[in-house]
Amino acid sequence: MISAVQKVVIPAAGLGTRFLPATKAVPKELLPIVDVPTIQYIVEEAVRGGVKDVIVVNGRGKVAIEDHFDIAFELETTLQSRGRTDLTEKLRAISEMARVVSLRQKQPLGLGHAVLCAASVVGPNPFGVILGDDLIDAEVPAIQQLITAYGRYGKGVIALMEVPPSEASRYGIAAGTPIDERTLQIDRIIEKPPAGTAPSNLAVIGRYVLPPSVFEILRNVPPGVGGEIQLTDALAVLARTEGLVGHRFEGKRYDAGDRMGYLKANLAYALKRPELRDGLLEFMRELLREGV
User: Fold this and answer.
1) From CA 202, how far away is CA 208, in angstroms rounded?
2) pLDDT of res. 1
3) d(Cα 60, Cα 45) in Å, to the nearest integer?
4) Could you tell me the residue range of the domain that residue 129 belongs to?
5) Tens-place pLDDT, residues 91-117
6) Do 216 and 267 reside in the same domain of the chain?
7) Same domain, 71 and 27
8) Which comes out higher in pLDDT, residue 242 or 197?
9) How far apart are CA 89 and CA 77, in angstroms?
10) Confidence category of residue 3, pLDDT binned at 50, 70, 90
């Protein structure tokens, strides 16, 4: 069955300051989780969710992201001549996994502005948004879970995850009326509420399926937190005018844009690899024995 959502936007224009100096010349989205760039996992999720077109919104100095999903003719030819057809096939699969379009966000005006930059390419159809440093390890791709909810309720859908109240000020927070065990009708959504003021402990995580009408809202929403065009503010308008659904996704989320989250993701994904698991576990036991 053809998915109702055929395009996904991946905002990837951030400077990656939390990973300096590593991100001085390398986009943070290309930092590897073991040996696979973070953004490749994001694109693979979109493809597994039935999406055909991926729109990467990047900034200056990030052409390497576009290059990663292009054919590396010289490298493939060299590997082929050395008999490394396994690596050649792996590289070619990356370039063929999706139709990748690269756009520029010319000014750092916020996540909402980054999404708005893709309006002309998205067109008049519902679309997905996946943040470039938010990994969700799930049997059913998280974006597919949201696409299914969009088809069921006919409204924009955002991914939600419970967080400790002490961490609520780090996220967009949503509250609403339960529809079923995992889904609620959003009544209120606020970006990074001050400590002690959050309307719930349900944080908005980097997966969205939105109607194209959100673009007009983004064009008119005033700057919010940090003087930027906040996607959360546009979602609040969408909730009031057309309705918005929150879905508590199934899966394990890793914030690969945070140093601790990035390290946890590397460990978790490495432990899923049979050729790495035993050696890594033994090394971790050694560290514990040594009291490191």
Assistant:
1) 15
2) 42
3) 25
4) 7-257
5) 889 888 889 999 998 888 889 999 999
6) no
7) yes
8) 242
9) 11
10) low
Claim to verify: residue 28 and residue 170 sit in the same structural domain: yes
- Cα separation, 38 vs 94, in Å, equals 13
**Sorting pLDDT into bands at 50, 70 and 90, what band is 46?**
very high
Residue 1 in any domain: the answer is no
Instruction: Give the total number of structural domains in the chain.
Output: 2
Q: Clarify whether residues 104 and 192 are in a common domain.
A: yes
Amino acid symbol at 182: R
The answer for residues whose C-beta is within 8 angstroms of residue 55's C-beta and 6 or more apart is 7, 8, 9, 10, 100, 101, 103, 118, 121, 122
Mean pLDDT value across the chain: 91
Would 2 be classed as within a structural domain? no
Domain for residue 33, yes or no? yes
Contacts of 120 (CB under 8 A, 6+ apart): none
281 and 206, same structural domain?
A: no
Packing angle of the helix pair 73-81, 85-96 (nearest 10 deg): 160
